[in-house]
Each structure stands twice: as structure tokens, then as C-alpha cells.
Specification:
InterPro entries: Ribosomal_bL33, Ribosomal_bL33_sf, Ribosomal_zn-bd. Belongs to the bacterial ribosomal protein bL33 family. It holds the Pfam family Ribosomal_L33. One of its GO terms (cellular component) is ribosome. By secondary structure, this protein is mostly beta strands. The chain has a single domain, classed as Single Sheet (Rubrerythrin, domain 2). Helices cover about 0% and strands about 45% of the residues. It has no helices and four strands. A four-stranded antiparallel sheet has the order 2-1-4-3, with no helix packed on it.
């Protein structure tokens, strides 16, 4: 028997400020990304969380990407 897909899915969160920051503002090159899970039934819209960005060395808004 095949298993049905679960309710929880894995999503990737990306820093919104790393894309627009200049090289002088960043501590290291690149974009901060986190992976987490979300409940497909409860959260239909994209997830937004405040997370620590190691490139900017502060808390920034991270949004779900595809």
C-alpha cells in the first residue's frame, strides 16, 4: 500500500535583506537560508519568521521561497 503525503512539508526560508545589502554591509558573501517544516492545512500563505542572519550579524526577516 502506498503511503499518503503527510500534512507537514519542508520549506526553505531566505533572508530578505541579504539580497539588497552591499558587500560592505555583509560579514561574508552569500545569502542566509534556513529549512523548517510547516503544516499545509493551517498555513496556506508563505511563512515569514525573524531569524538570525550570519552575513549581516543581526535578526532579519526570512521568507519562504519555492
Amino acid at each position: 500500500m502506498a503511503k499518503s503525503k503527510g500534512v507537514r512539508i519542508i520549506v526553505t526560508l531566505e533572508c530578505t535583506e541579504c539580497r539588497t545589502a552591499t558587500a560592505a554591509e555583509k560579514r561574508s558573501p552569500g545569502v542566509s537560508r534556513y529549512t523548517t517544516t510547516k503544516n499545509r492545512r493551517n498555513n496556506l500563505e508563505r511563512l515569514e519568521l525573524m531569524k538570525f542572519c550570519p552575513q549581516l550579524n543581526r535578526m532579519t526577516l526570512h521568507r519562504e521561497i519555492k
